[in-house]
């Protein structure tokens, strides 16, 4: 089915779910506390919206993808493309997406329990990811995985395939900086910040000295807090985990990623409830944040 990478957000009241990262049980619990049944139906005709990063780290990425695909095909939910989905589409193996390739995820010798994909499930996942838009919008609300950049977002209207679009811009950027003399770090930053697919799904970055180690590699770049300058239509995004308790957003934006992707670290230490790392949804237009264990707070 042909679709634009900038799609129309469903009308009516919404529940916008943060990065799930393979945590199927918290997702089912959150849906219950929000008033949805297992089929994604809500008595008040609410709809679910997922901000991407459905997979990796958690115990059952396949179950999460299967559920979200079922809900979107039934028109009871929408979902945008996150950087973790994009990595899989680009066949980029990361330290935490081995499940897709049938490989275990380990951290300092600890094997994180995960369901592994096979050829059949891999093909299904890839087909679903390739069908996802990058951004959703309507008059009062916008949803994206990492960063709203108006000009780059509007450029999605004429595009129907994220991989084709990312490759087109990668070629253009390479040609533009071919004789610029930029070093490897600045070249990487050009491809991150000037390619709309990368910027919208993983946000703008800037050079940092000294480098630091995170997510399995040494990093010479740091994330830019783009939301500090965001104005206009309210934007809900994920990507920037607020597990440290520091909110990301301003009066016109809000990050709904509460860090559930690292919940396996709590389970490893014996925690079974009362988790510090949570899955959450923002109820719109109420601006009420609901968490997977039932608590809530007003923005």
Would you mind describing this structure in some detail?
With 299 residues, the chain is an alpha/beta fold. The protein has one domain (6-160, 226-298): Purple Acid Phosphatase, chain A, domain 2, CATH 3.60.21. It is built from nine helices and 16 strands. Strands 1-7-8-11-13-12 form a six-stranded mixed β-sheet, with no helix packed on it. Helix 7 packs across helix 8. The radius of gyration is 19 Å and the shape is globular. The model has no long low-confidence stretch (mean pLDDT 93).
Rg calc = 19 Å
Strand order of the largest sheet: 1-7-8-11-13-12
**Helix residue percentage:** 25-40%
Count up the helices: 9
**Total of domains:** 1
Give the low-pLDDT segments. none
Described by the principal axes of the CA atoms, the overall outline is globular
CATH superfamily caption: Metallo-dependent phosphatases
- Average pLDDT: 93
Strand-residue fraction? 15-25%
The ordered string of helix (H) and strand (E) elements is EEHEHEHEEHEEHHHHEEEEEHEEE
Distance between the ends: 38 Å
SSE layout:
Layout: E1 6-8, E2 14-17, H1 24-34, E3 47-50, H2 61-73, E4 77-79, H3 83-89, E5 105-107, E6 110-112, H4 119-130, E7 135-138, E8 141-144, H5 150-154, H6 162-176, H7 184-194, H8 196-202, E9 205-214, E10 217-223, E11 234-237, E12 249-250, E13 253-255, H9 263-268, E14 280-284, E15 288-291, E16 296-298
Parallel strand pairs: 1-7, 2-3, 3-4, 8-11, 11-13
Antiparallel strand pairs: 2-14, 5-6, 7-8, 9-10, 12-13, 14-15, 15-16
Helix pairs in contact: 7-8
């Amino acid at each position: 089915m042909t679709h634009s990478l900038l799609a129309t957000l469903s009308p009516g009241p919404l529940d916008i779910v943060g990065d799930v990262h393979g945590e199927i049980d918290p997702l089912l619990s959150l849906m219950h506390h929000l008033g949805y049944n297992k089929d994604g139906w809500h008595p008040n005709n609410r709809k679910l919206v997922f901000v991407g990063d459905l997979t990796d780290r958690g115990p059952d990425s396949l179950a999460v993808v299967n559920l979200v695909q079922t809900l979107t095909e039934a028109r009871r939910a929408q979902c945008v493309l996150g950087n973790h989905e994009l990595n899989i589409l680009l066949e980029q193996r990361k330290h935490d997406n081995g499940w897709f390739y049938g490989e275990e995820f380990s951290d300092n010798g600890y094997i994180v329990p995960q369901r592994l994909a096979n050829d059949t499930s891999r093909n299904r996942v890839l087909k679903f990811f390739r069908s996802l838009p990058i951004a959703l919008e309507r008059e009062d609300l916008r949803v994206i995985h990492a960063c709203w950049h108006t000009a780059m977002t509007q450029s999605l209207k004429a595009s129907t395939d994220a991989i084709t679009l990312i490759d087109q811009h990668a070629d253009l950027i390479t040609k533009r900086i071919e004789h610029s003399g930029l070093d490897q770090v600045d070249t990487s930053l050009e491809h991150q910040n000037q390619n709309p697919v990368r910027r919208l799904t993983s946000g703008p970055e800037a050079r940092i000295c000294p480098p630091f180690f995170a997510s399995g590699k040494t990093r010479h770049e740091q994330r830019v807090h783009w939301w500090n300058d965001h104005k206009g239509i309210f934007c809900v995004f994920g990507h920037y985990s607020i597990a440290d308790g520091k909110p990301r957003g301003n009066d016109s934006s809000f990050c709904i990623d509460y860090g559930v992707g690292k919940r396996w670290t709590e389970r490893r230490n014996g925690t079974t409830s009362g988790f510090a790392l949570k899955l959450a949804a923002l109820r719109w237009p109420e601006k009420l944040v609901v968490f997977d264990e039932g608590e809530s707070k007003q923005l």
